[in-house]
């Protein structure tokens, strides 16, 4: 079935003509030997933007997470504290246990965000020989399953202060960090300076087909290189990929607010449909969740009806997720709303 309007994810963007041209014309070299000029330029740009001294180019954000965890877990079984809905815990194939040899300590936050008092006991408790130590606090900005919620920087500052005092690492899953920055006008380096490691992803709103950069200290990145090789992340002539990331960084980062505006437009329109259950005030960035009410139409059937019109959304438990991005137009949103209205009127 042909998908014309894809709300499934902002990873489902097509590289633009300009991005494809940049990739086709990229200067390349041996990435694993540090000889690819386009990769080197991308890493340098990201380090400057995030305020970190070193970085490493990787195919995906998932690889960034697993390498950051592996490089900072000191003893097998160490705890990684993170929200119970975190992407790396829920949908990254058990990487914490299988790859990082660590235990997860899931915290029940609100929309993917927890507070200092919820984790303080795990950070400050005395070390006992039969209880794992907490080594990492991992934060996702923005939260995917939290509907694009933005961690208040004050929360992060408080947690970072506690972690630093207790020799606990801070890691930022910044797959959509630039979306948070677009909404808050807080510079990326203001967030990232609070973390020992962080990554940004280029395959979300920036529209690249793949690629992410993990940053931190020189010592940390040297460890990251070891684990990059270990899990098969070494690349050759990777400048072709990095050129797409650079194009997105230079041209599309300033367009992210448009994605947020589209999500707001969609949520406002959904809120006017009687059988749609949505709290439109919750959604600040490009991810929204909604449900159905006063209807016997199952969610899966609703999703199938949309698909027949070439519209794709994703069911997550008792909600439907829609993510706006550069390849969705306002006309397509209007068409989607029309289809939803007609579907629920007929039900």
Please supply descriptive tags for the structure shown above:
single chain, 347 residues, alpha/beta, Aspartate Aminotransferase, domain 1, Aspartate Aminotransferase, domain 2, 2 domains, 7-stranded mixed sheet, 4-stranded antiparallel sheet, 13 strands, 17% strand, globular, ArAA_b-elim_lyase/Thr_aldolase, L-allo-threonine aldolase activity, PyrdxlP-dep_Trfase, lyase, Threonine aldolase
Q: Your description of this structure?
A:
The chain is α/β, with parallel strands linked by helices and 347 residues long. The chain has two domains: 99 residues, Aspartate Aminotransferase, domain 1; 239 residues, Aspartate Aminotransferase, domain 2 (3-Layer(aba) Sandwich), CATH 3.40.640. It has 14 helices and 13 strands. The protein is globular. The protein starts with a strand and ends with a helix.
Please give the domain count: 2
Cα-atom Rg, whole angstroms?
A: 21 Å
Name the structural class. Answer: alpha/beta
Unreliable stretches covering 5 or more consecutive residues: none
- Assembly annotation: single chain
**What's the CATH topology label of the largest domain?**
Aspartate Aminotransferase, domain 2
CATH class of the largest domain: Alpha Beta
> CATH superfamily assignment of the largest domain?
Type I PLP-dependent aspartate aminotransferase-like (Major domain)
Question: What's the count of strands?
Answer: 13
**What is the name of the CATH architecture of the largest domain?**
3-Layer(aba) Sandwich
The N- to C-terminal Cα distance equals 23 Å
Helix content bin: 40-55%
Q: Please state the average pLDDT score.
A: 96
Q: Main sheet? A: 7 strands, mixed
Write out the strand line-up for the largest beta sheet, numbering strands in chain order. 2-8-7-6-5-3-4
Give the CA-based shape.
Answer: globular
């Amino acid at each position: 079935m042909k998908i014309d309007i894809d709300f499934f994810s902002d990873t489902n963007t097509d590289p633009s003509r300009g991005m494809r041209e940049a990739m086709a014309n990229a200067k390349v070299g041996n990435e694993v030997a540090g000889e690819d000029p386009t990769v080197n330029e991308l890493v340098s740009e990201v380090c400057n933007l995030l305020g970190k001294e070193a970085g490493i180019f990787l195919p995906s954000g998932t690889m960034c997470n697993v390498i950051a965890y592996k490089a900072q877990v000191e003893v097998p079984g160490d705890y990684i504290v993170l929200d119970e809905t975190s992407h790396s815990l829920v949908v990254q194939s058990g990487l914490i246990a299988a790859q990082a040899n660590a235990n997860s300590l899931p915290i029940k936050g609100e929309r993917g965000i927890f507070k200092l008092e919820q984790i303080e006991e795990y950070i400050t408790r005395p070390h006992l020989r039969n209880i794992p130590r907490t080594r990492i606090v991992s934060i996702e900005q923005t939260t995917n399953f939290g509907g694009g919620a933005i961690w208040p920087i004050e929360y992060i500052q408080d947690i970072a202060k506690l972690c630093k005092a207790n020799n606990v690492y801070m890691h930022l899953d910044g797959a959509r960090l630039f979306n948070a920055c677009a909404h808050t006008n807080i510079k990326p380096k203001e967030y990232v300076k609070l973390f020992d490691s962080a990554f940004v992803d280029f395959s979300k709103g920036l529209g690249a087909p793949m690629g992410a950069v993990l940053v931190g200290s020189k010592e940390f990145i040297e460890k990251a290189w070891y684990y990059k090789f270990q899990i098969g992340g070494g690349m050759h002539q990777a400048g072709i990929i990095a050129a797409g990331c650079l194009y997105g960084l230079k041209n599309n980062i300033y367009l992210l607010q448009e994605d947020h505006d589209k999500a707001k437009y969609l949520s406002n329109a959904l809120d006017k449909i009687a059988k749609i259950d949505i709290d439109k005030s919750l959604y600040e960035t490009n991810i929204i969740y909604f449900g159905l009410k006063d209807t016997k139409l199952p969610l899966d059937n609703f999703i199938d009806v949309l698909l027949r019109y070439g519209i794709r959304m994703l069911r997550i438990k008792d909600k439907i997720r829609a993510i706006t991005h550069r390849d969705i137009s306002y006309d397509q949103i209007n068409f989607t709303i029309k289809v939803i209205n007609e579907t629920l009127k007929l039900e």
